[in-house]
Amino acid sequence: MSSSGSRSQASPSSSHKGPLDGLVVLDLSRILAGPTCTQLLGDMGAEVIKIEHPARGDDTRGWGPPFLKGKDGEDTRESAYYLSSNRNKRSVGVNMGSEEGIAILKELAAKADIVIENFKVGDLTRKGLGYDDLHALNPRLIYCSITGFGQTGPYAHRAGYDALIQAMGGIMSITGLPEEEGGSPMKIGVGIADVMCGMYASSAILAALHHREASGEGQYIDISLMDCQVAWLINQGLSYLTNGKVPPRLGNAHPTIVPYDTFPAADKDFMVAVGNDGQYQRFCEVLGCCELASDPRFVTNADRVRHRAELVPLLRQHTITQNAAHWTAALEAVGVPCGPVNDLESVFNDPQVLHRGMKISLPHALSEDGQVNLIGNPIKFSSTPVTYRKAPPTLSEGSMEVLTKHLGKSIEEVHEYAERGIVSLGKE
After folding, report:
1. Closest CA to 145 of 117, 120, 115
2. Could you give the residue numbers annotated as active site?
């Protein structure tokens, strides 16, 4: 792992224990929102038991290519999508269509601190795995349900998918090129509705843990992709609620700060994020257009926002005369925020990204070179750093360990379960 110089180191062999060490998470979620949440909890030290379909596993295992290359150079079953959000977990394959499988999950929930699930509303209750069922077994249990639209309301019965939520929740309407430039609504290039829902879920769970420490009581958390996506409309949402005007798409421009946009250089675009009037003055000085700094139409940010259609083309006439490296160096030297528009190759070779440990490698038994590359955790604790204890597991590789350790099953009992199709066993 490349993170030398960082104050807080995180590594597979770290002697530190994370802040959630000792907590057990029963993860009944699939795809991205739930797994993002549980990976975060796992990075912070919790033991995460990932329950999967015994034959096909998490749906995202098949969401490729790309897949991790095996020792024979051929694709394994481990898709990059699956690998992105399942670190620090144990995979247990359980047949939830069998009474014995449900019984196993109840036993695990009785010993767990947290249950996270993202089944359709009512599915787990019909199986006897709803909050009331498990709370009766374990009153201290924190139970988090992640759904597309929440447990109540006219859309509660609907399935939720990231792109659907981005469309319905409004973020697509303000993302993409302006209509007058031929643009149309555009989703964000990653499953951001899922990821942010996972982040909100982790925050809610940590709050519920604090409440439990004070009261001894667990509780139920109802969180939805739609609610979360509406919540992170943030300033754009408040602009609408303030003036009643539907915000237009502005491409890379900012709705209330100018100039805050990509600008063309002689070789490629670069990003400028002018945050105040002083920075704007220095921006114009570097570009050699001081007259635009003193022009009454552009002196204050409010003026520049009102006259962006006149100002931005004038600025672009200047930026096109030099390459992007010239402008970013000159602007950085005078404290004007700017930077290159990096592709992912540039990102994962960036010295700052490497220094901060945002690209890591962990041992993986199936990998061609014995390692799998992953994205690091951005949280830097001073006393309880995150740890990378285990690569995303292969399907059912933790079944034997979890059932013997947590439920006291014998090796013979677990093998009998496997023979009867109640659980599946992978390579430990």
Report:
1. 117
2. 194
